Amino acid sequence: MLILRVAVALPLRRYFDxxxxxxxxxxQFKIGVRLKVPFGPRTMxxxxxxxxxxxxxxxxxxxxxxxxxxxxxxxxxxxxxxxCWVSHYYHHPIGDVLSTALPSKLRKGEKAKLKGEKRWxxxxxxxxxxxxxxxxxxxxxxxxxxxLQQHPTGLSSAEIQQQLGNCQPAIKALQKKACLQAYDCYxxxxxxxKVEAPFALQARQQQAVxxxxxxxxxxxxxxxxxxxxSGKTEVYLHIVAKVIELGLQALIxxxxxxxxxxxxxxxxxxxxxxxxxxxxxxxxxxxxTAWMMAKQGKASIVIGTRSAVFVPLQSAGVFIVDEEHxxxxxxxxxxxxxxxxxxIKRAHQHNIPIILGSxxxxxxxxxxxxxxxxxxxxxxxxxxxxxxxxxxxxxxxxHPMKNGFSTALLKTIAQHLGRDEQVLLFLNRxxxxxxxxxxxxxxLADCPQCDAHMTLHHQLRKLSCHHCGFEQKIPxxxxxxxxxxxxxLGQGTxxxxxxxxxxxxxxxxxxxxxxxxxKKGVFEQQLKDIHANKIQLLIGTQMLAKGHHFxxxxxxxxxxxxxxxxxxxFRSAERLAQLILQVAGRAGREQKIGKVLIQTYYAYHSFxxxxxxxxxxxxxxxxxxxxxxxxxxxxxxxxxxxxxxxxQPFPMDFLxxxxxxxxxxxxAGIEYLGPVPSPMERRGGWYRAQLLVxxxxxxxxxxxxxxxxxxxxxxxxxxxRWSIDIDPLEMF
Length: 732
Ligand code: ADP
Ligand code: ZN
Ligand code: ZN
Known about the structure:
This protein is an alpha/beta fold. The protein folds into five domains: 3-107, GIY-YIG endonuclease (3-Layer(aba) Sandwich); 117-185, Arc Repressor Mutant, subunit A (Orthogonal Bundle), CATH 1.10.10; 203-379, Rossmann fold (3-Layer(aba) Sandwich); 390-433 and 490-624, P-loop containing nucleotide triphosphate hydrolases (Rossmann fold); 637-726, Alpha-Beta Plaits (2-Layer Sandwich). The chain has 22 helices and 32 strands. The protein has a seven-stranded parallel β-sheet with strand order 11-12-10-13-14-9-15, with helices on both faces. Strands 16-28-27-19-26-25 form a six-stranded parallel β-sheet, with helices on both faces. Strands 2-1-4-3-5 form a five-stranded antiparallel β-sheet. Strand 1 (3-8) and strand 2 (16-18) form a beta hairpin. Helix 1 crosses helix 2, helix 8 (203-213) runs parallel beside helix 9 (232-245) and helix 18 runs antiparallel to helix 20 (616-630). The chain binds adenosine-5'-diphosphate and zinc ion (2 copies). One zinc ion binds at residues 447, 449-450, 452, 465, 467-468, 470, 684.
């Protein structure tokens, strides 16, 4: 008896058994192919996980599959093992995990085929003939040879005809003479005029490269801790060069789309070969192409954001996670996975090294390096001649403030502008003002759907809620007392931009946040203008904090550091430290020394003392000590059960019952924190609450979750949506 065990692309925590279709033989059922299966009245897509000889239900209830979609598996046995591990570790339905891992075209059942374009290139003989010339009659052919000589990556027939007119017969003739050869091109070659040669490594870089190269044939996790500009990317490039030389592939994960073009450009200039880039800006077809190129080994370099961690590879050689501390590696909805953590597991399964790089490693990774679970590699100094920036606090209690600026900051900005240098200002709050308030009766513009204030957007003439997207017109009079005395309180990037334009009329200001960059191509243009020095003052949100390299920025101002200092989450201090050092890393990356000024009302907070005067490492030591005392991660493992409902009592009722159930299992070593309403209880019209579960050992927590989740699924009488978040990074 041949029974097909299938993971159906549905959020269900189990496999389903099917019979083969009549007329197909065993060889056609390869593990990892897609199948079309009947599911109730519907037809669904599934992946063949296993072939067994005994069904898990009575055999007369089994139905035959409808079709086999692939002749070759989409996922190798190792890939499937990873996906099953993900499902198990995150307690998430396997069908959903598979859907996350597949590009949408494959999820919809389209053919797993690489669509290429035929391009013509000169053969060696053709190159010679292009110089020596053919016979006089073959004028067309000579033109083609000469044209192709200028295009080493080749041209398509259409491109040739565009330049020379109809020449199909001439192409045919040249092919016959073995002067031309055709190849299938999947990603149009990017025209990189500049080829970048590798740098001679500095001593510390060399040490890092040597250490990693000596582990190419085994699993080892490296933490590459190097300040911004210390040459981490150069280390990656050296490792990747070696990996390609060995005929293997490198998978590089980056946090955000904003980072991808720069890093991508760097890899393209260094390695003149196709790179499969996977990020959210791709069309479905482009995504499929990149995915297939990675899978078939046609791209030796794969660079992508979070979900690229699932891309199948033909021969993995190394994994790199750049900016490993970045929380965008964690998906915050659906399958709440950490791409960094999965990458480590995957490297382990493939028995290859993985490099976690950051200027501000996460406390988790620092802890693992301390325990020597990770091998620690340190690049303490900037590469080249660049010096580290000077960082200074501006105590806002002592400096008079106006429109969000202290006089001291304004004076320094003027100095830097006077030297024709650029200034970057950072404020993590978009919009014009975070509050609209009535001076007479105290009315405040609140979101009707959230426990939050509405932000005023001047240009858009709107009040907008940044939590649920609700928008309304700006009222002219107070809705409560009809007074005209409505005032805008606080500063957002839009207002700062206005102030800067007034104060520095001879300089150009650019604002970079989600509002200004919504239109495609705007961000790229702004970056170009900054590089061309057309802009002298930049104001931006965290979009500006990462990855970008602005050689002429010598002053960075952090307008309000207190936003993070007073955060409710136990990770707030870590996040703030990382953000400040990342922003600071934008200053003075080349010849000129950079300066960073931080405005705060809490200049005497111990946070500053450790971070600024003793450094990030000392900060980490102290923060880890605190975490250990409080028994928080990485000294404990956590899972967060969230529930939400449109009716207020349900989430808490559900979670109270959930806690009661969990306690019945009497598993020793589990601690419950809550349930409590979420810090912002109402959001987008939903009431939210959460229950944090914690244990010292992952095994203990896992044991609880395995039983508990099944029980939770049966608790239908509470009208809530709930989710489980393993290793949660955000507590709201
Ligand atoms: P990171 O990735 O740590 O921010 P990069 O690799 O981008 O650092 O290097 C920062 C700058 O230093 C780049 O402009 C790079 O070209 C330069 N650089 C890196 N390594 C070297 C080296 N060994 N010698 C000279 N310049 C280097
Ligand atoms: Zn009023
Ligand atoms: Zn809202």
